[in-house]
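We close this part of the discussion by returning to an individual protein. Part of our work consisted of pairing the sequence of a single chain with a tokenised description of its backbone. What the numbers capture is local backbone geometry rather than side-chain detail. The amino acid sequence and the backbone structure tokens for this protein are reproduced below.
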Amino acid sequence: MIEEPKALRIARDLGPDGTPGWRQPTAAQIAAFRDQPTGFVLDAMMGAGAMSAAIKPCAGLPDRLCGPALPVGNRPGDVLATLAAIHMVRPGDILVAGFDGYQGCAAAGDRVMGFLRNRGGAGFVTDGPLRDLTGLRGIGLPAFCTGLTPGSPVARGPGTVGLPVRCGGQQVETGDMIVGDSDGIVVVPFARIDAVIAALRGVAEAELSLDAQVADGLAEVGLISAMLESGEDIDWV
């Protein structure tokens, strides 16, 4: 006989008391990403780390998100693990709720967002839709999702809290940096945070310099100008 799985699997070093060993970026590391566009962060990772373009900021809510991930794994149409994760949230956490991409009902609504806000959470990301838009706007917490639906989920499990989860095409683990804006969501793996911060400085300098040149009237792309001048990589027909 196949043994029935437990309703919840929770990473042992998670807990409402903030058990030591729960990895989390430092305040300085989080601050390094806070005002950076997702495009800059992605470039600093050589183009890796973006979630699916289907995951967008929910209309009428703040579209800026920055903080460490608390990953949650749900079965399609089920939110038991998301509800359990509310009890594990630490101030500043981003709840990343994998929903297996299911679009048939909501992955959360205004009540879950209210719980999350009251626990000090900084935002919510899911690969499913949300519901209760009017209530969500009243809560005012940043939420990224695939759209809206009136459909209600169930809460039966099984599900996971604090274990790696796949969401929007990206692997998300506890303590990974989540950066979001109007362009979407980028995931920075915990082990790469310092390296990405170092690369980010150079990316930002280059991008801001080019922006200033365009504002001053620049009207050509250096790479294309060089190709046109040399003619080596162009076949004129």
